[in-house]
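Troubleshooting: if your tokenizer reports a length mismatch, compare against these two reference records.
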Amino acid sequence: MKTIVLEAEFSSAHFYHQPKWSEEKNEQEFGRCFTDYGHGHNYRLLCEWSDVSDKEIPDLRKKLNAVVEVVDHEHLNFVLPEFKNKIPTTEVMLQYFEKKLGEVITKKLVNLELFETAEIGAKLN
């Protein structure tokens, strides 16, 4: 048994818009990320599990890819009910992935990280 990290990449778009704020306040807070159409990122998701056998790795990879496939090349606010009225920040998206992976993978995640750029990301562990 060993600890493994699997990586999945995907591209998604989303809105940065707080409906309680004025357009001016949204633009001030979110800058170029506040547009009528949203903006997108090429994301990198890193998932770490411990006590994994070599036989389990292909199944983990397959299930991870299935979870990520739902968001790949989609506008998150339009496609996923979880983000219809919520700003899908990196931290909020991590909570989404933690929940969805937990529904299909019984092994406990040791670490979960999501990067929207090489320098900007979030971590759950």
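Reference record two:
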Amino acid sequence: MRTEAICDALMTARWNRRRGEAVIDTVVARLHEYGYLDDARFAETYARLRQENEKLGQRRVQQDLSAGVDRN
């Protein structure tokens, strides 16, 4: 599960010179259209799983999300 920012960064790193930014924007738009990329749903799922599985408090989860989650 990834956020839009993470997907964009990964694609930019991989396709920076070969494909171009227009292709990356098209892919991100298509992922949104198909419902595969939804930052709000990501945040909800991330928060729920962190609280249930790792027994973290709401404040800690909010701090992780606001700091920009980059943990797989």
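Descriptive notes for reference record two:
- The mean pLDDT is 78.
- Residues 1-37 form one domain.
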